[in-house]
Specification:
11 strands; seven-stranded mixed beta sheet; mainly beta
């Protein structure tokens, strides 16, 4: 199973980026998939998830600015990031698992499969 994240880059504050995460060796359709991020010197934290039903969840810090979506036919996860802020600067990871506990979906330990990370840098 491989998750390949891409789409990161350098952008000015207020700008937009769209991240992608393509899966191989695994069918996303059965999974809960999401994005986490890790800033330098900090722990990896929850950003957003999308369930099999299409229901989405966001951290308070990105709600209203980021949009998570999935294309199961393409086995790909997306994160549209708008109104970016310098504090959004981090390495962004995609994650997948077939059966995370709902109340624990915000935890890194709930996901067995991870992408390699894509760097997002927002300049002020």
């Amino acid at each position: 199973v491989q998750l390949q994240a891409s789409g990161g880059g350098l952008v000015q504050a207020g700008g937009s980026l769209k991240l992608s995460c393509a899966a191989s060796g695994r069918t996303f359709r059965r999974d809960v998939v999401g994005w986490f991020r890790q800033a330098p010197g900090k722990e990896r934290v929850f950003v957003a998830t999308i369930w099999r039903s299409g229901k989405t969840y966001y951290s308070d810090s990105v709600k209203g600015r980021f949009t998570i979506s999935r294309d199961d036919a393409k086995n790909t996860l997306y994160l549209q990031m708008d109104s970016l802020k310098p504090e959004d600067t981090a390495l962004y990871y995609c994650a997948a698992d077939s059966s995370p506990i709902f109340s624990a979906q915000f935890r890194v330990s709930s996901y067995r499969y991870w992408g390699q990370g894509t760097q997002v840098t927002v300049s002020s």
